[in-house]
Design brief:
By secondary structure, the protein is of the alpha/beta class. It has 15 helices and 23 strands.
């Protein structure tokens, strides 16, 4: 059985792991590898390597750091298919979907290639007689990322390219469910010219996470995952004096008004609800219909669901693959069971599905509920699977109030042909990322990604300008140089203009 080990100090960790966990092919249910699970020894070794590397890396000219990112970008461009196929083998999403994930991560690498501009300070001359004031941005030191299974290539790339280009060194703790893309990233960064110790990967579970949060030599932690864990990461990390950005879960709503283009809305609901088997923090999991919109929309959604091809991610004809593990499949099925028991109307049932030849795979087919109410568990919980719920409301204001009452505030969307209604939505909705006639409002790399409320803990969104702010700290310098007009000792408090 292949063992996926840690990457520390520019090479694969040589020691055999004391603990390991299985890695599966979700389409077949077969174990394909085991991944090393870090103890404190491996985490401390990674942090020590990163700390040692930081002493030199922080002084490497920003243009040189950019050039390494350019080299890495070129490797990703040439080998994106390899990374996508590696991702599919462990996560299960289709290769086409995986390639899209790699592309979105690549865009952040491209953003980081402009660090010389992004990290510039400000300068004010002659703020007082012979006095200039300016700011400089400096790296934090050793920083860490803790990332989820659903985007094993993209989410780490939301973090480490900006952190490294800004002069920090990095320790990544990816999901143990699909670890191989992080290993590829480490190898390719080394090939691009990144010095040993600047980027390190430790695999593991809570043991590794807790050590990262407590380690005195780690200055900052980035996290993406569920809300309960995000809250834990934020509270524990900040208690140990770290800067923390922790992105939590979501329950993304999509309002459909009666005047909407129903063909467009149906396409959007199916695409955003079932893409990547619903294992996206930006998936649409609730469609909120106003007035008679549900009667127009749901037959169209059902028609599209009936035509979807669900199968192994490696099959080019598959539009949706399996869930990541058997345990996660069982959790999703449990929510479907509960929705039926609570009285929701099940229009499409994805339970018990398996493609021919893949009977042991972790599949759940697209599932659609109607007449879901806010007191039901399928509405209250982030299911993280191919389950789309429909909530019917009488008025637009009721729909907006429903979304604003949710503890989550990650992403949302409205479908309408009424410009005034759309403008009202973007103004009144209490959600961090808003789509108008598009269902997944994920910003490009030169903006920042982040929700509100229980979807984000901390003051920084991820990547984009907020990413640069997060991985640097500002220093203000006030300088005066002696000149012939020096007037000797003056015990008075300095005054502007003097």
């Amino acid at each position: 059985m292949k063992t996926i080990n840690h990457w520390i100090g520019g090479k694969t960790w040589a020691d055999a792991p004391d603990r390991s966990a299985p890695v599966y092919d979700p389409a077949t249910g077969d174990q394909t590898a085991e991944v090393a699970m870090a103890t404190l020894v491996e985490v401390d070794a990674a942090v020590a390597a990163a700390k040692q590397a930081f002493a030199e890396w922080r002084h490497v000219p920003v243009t040189r750091r950019q050039n390494i990112m350019f080299n890495y970008r070129q490797i990703l461009v040439e080998r994106r298919q390899q990374m996508a196929e590696t991702l599919t083998a462990e996560h299960g999403k289709t290769v086409a979907d995986a390639a899209g994930e790699v592309q979105r991560g690549l865009e952040v690498v491209e953003f980081a290639c402009n660090m010389a501009h992004l990290a510039k300070g400000e300068y004010s001359e002659q703020v007082s007689s012979g006095v200039d004031t300016y700011t400089i941005r400096q790296p934090l030191g050793v920083v860490a990322g803790i990332t989820p299974f659903n985007f094993p290539a993209m989410v780490p790339m939301w973090m480490y390219p900006i952190a490294i280009a800004a002069g920090n060194t990095f320790v990544l703790k990816p999901s143990e469910k699909d670890p191989s893309t992080s290993q590829l990233a480490a190898e390719w960064l080394a090939e691009a010219g990144l010095p040993e110790g600047v980027f390190n990967v430790v695999h593991g579970d809570k043991v590794a996470v807790d050590r990262i949060l407590e380690h005195p030599d780690i200055a900052a932690v980035s996290f993406v995952g569920s809300t309960p864990i995000a809250r834990y990461i934020y509270e524990t990390g900040t208690r140990h004096g770290k800067r923390v950005q922790a992105l939590g879960g979501a329950k993304n709503h999509m309002i459909v008004l009666p005047d909407a283009d129903m063909e467009l809305a149906a396409d959007a609901a199916v695409s955003a609800g079932f893409g990547s088997a619903g294992e996206r923090c930006m998936a649409i999991s609730v469609v909120v219909t106003v007035g008679d919109a549900a009667d127009q929309l749901l037959p169209r959604v059902q028609e599209r669901i009936a035509k979807l091809r669900v199968g192994p991610g490696t099959d080019p004809d598959s539009e949706m693959g399996p869930l990541v593990t058997g345990a996660h499949r069982d959790r999703v099925v449990g929510f479907i069971d509960q929705g039926v028991a609570e009285g929701a109307n099940l229009l499409a049932d994805g339970r018990g599905f398996s493609p021919e030849g893949h009977e042991s795979g972790f599949f759940v087919a697209p599932t659609l509920f109607d007449n879901v109410t806010p007191d039901m568990e399928i509405y209250r919980n982030e299911i993280f699977g191919p389950v789309l719920s429909t909530v019917r409301t009488e008025s637009y204001q009721e729909a907006i109030d429903l979304i604003n009452a949710s503890p989550y505030g990650n992403g949302t969307a409205v479908f309408t042909n009424d410009g005034g209604a759309a403008r009202m939505f973007q103004s009144e909705i209490e959600v961090g990322m808003v789509g108008i006639n598009l269902p997944i409002p994920v910003p490009l790399a030169f903006y920042s990604f982040g929700g509100w409320k229980d979807s984000l803990f901390g003051t920084h969104s991820i990547y984009g300008p907020d990413g640069v702010d997060f991985y640097t700290r500002q220093k203000v310098v006030i300088s005066r140089w002696p000149d012939p007009m020096h007037r000797g000792v003056d015990l008075g408090f300095p005054q502007h203009g003097s």
